[in-house]
Amino acid sequence: MKPLLFILAILISTFVEAQTRILDTIYANDTKNVALFFPEPIRQGLTGSENFVFTYNREKEQYFGLLQAKQGKESNLLVINRNGSIFSYIVRYKAQLSKLNYFIPMTSSIGNEKPKVKDSIQSETFEKSIDNSTYYYQKFCSYLLDKRQYLGRYTRRNDGIIIRLENIVFDKEELYFVIQIRNNSTLDYDLNFLNLSIETRQKGKKKSLQRLYQEPIFKHHLPSKIVVNEMVRFIYVMPKFSLSNDRRVVLELNEKDGERNIEMKISNKYINNPN
Question: Less Cβ around it within 10 Å: N or C end of the chain?
Fold first, then answer.
């Protein structure tokens, strides 16, 4: 099928599917990037009007794309993931944006470009695939926790709380961040969150920083509390990614009902050259 006819066929099927559900609306403007994170890498993204631009990596499939808009009539955005899942949204221009990041769940998909018949065998196979992935993550994480290796420079502390990035390991299609937290203070530490984000240095006269949160696909032995004189080690499993020179990873440790917060900034060279 020719590309134009193929796209037209998808747009028609998407339109028919959309009649049975109300499409969500995403707002954008021409001064900020609105980031859309999808559950699978983006294979194709289309907008219905030239005053909306959706950019994504066409050479190397990635999980996110950026939306910008010029003032004008509303339009629509159609995104197809690598696994064939289709996502459709109404897009509108808005001068003031209250939301810059959208994390799209698989449940928001309106269908698949190659509809699959759901039967008990396929459902069972899918569930086994998930179980096998979880089992593998658990086993490999346990192996890494038995094998100690330190990157050296990545240790930060605040009032007796010490966080250390022990290792970054690449395996299959994932990056494993091995992290250690030690409580040398006189108070227990209640963990509110530990976020991993990608920080981008914006170029131009007005230098600024933009952070995009990255959701782990698996967390191994993440604690909710670190008691006094205790040391804990755990692992975040992330989808494989690489960074350009103007980007770096930020680990943000936040205490619940407290102020012993710590930020650790990790150079792109350690992300691009894992163990």
Answer: N
